[in-house]
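Bumping with the actual sequence this time:
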Amino acid sequence: MVKHIVLFKFKSFESAEEKEQKLKYIQSQLLNLKNIIKEIATMEVGLNGNPKEAFDLALVSTHKSWEDLAVYDQHPDHVAVKKIIKEVLDTRSAADFEF
């Protein structure tokens, strides 16, 4: 099994409400990928609730193999969500490991 962990920090928004709305939209779009891409074994996406931390959103997914992770990464629906994220992305950090 492979675990894929991604942390996202987003650019500034006009208001806290606008930021919350956009983050919830991104969260829902990411979570929906589990219903579309069979190579995702599990997926969790959460909004950061700790204001002392720098990142806004975390994604943790598991995949049966490195090949499944690669399929997920290049899947057209995932690519479409990545495009939405890139529009407001400041920083991204990721790690992948076998477990």
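The tokens above came from a reply further down the thread. The two ends are 6 Å apart (CA to CA).
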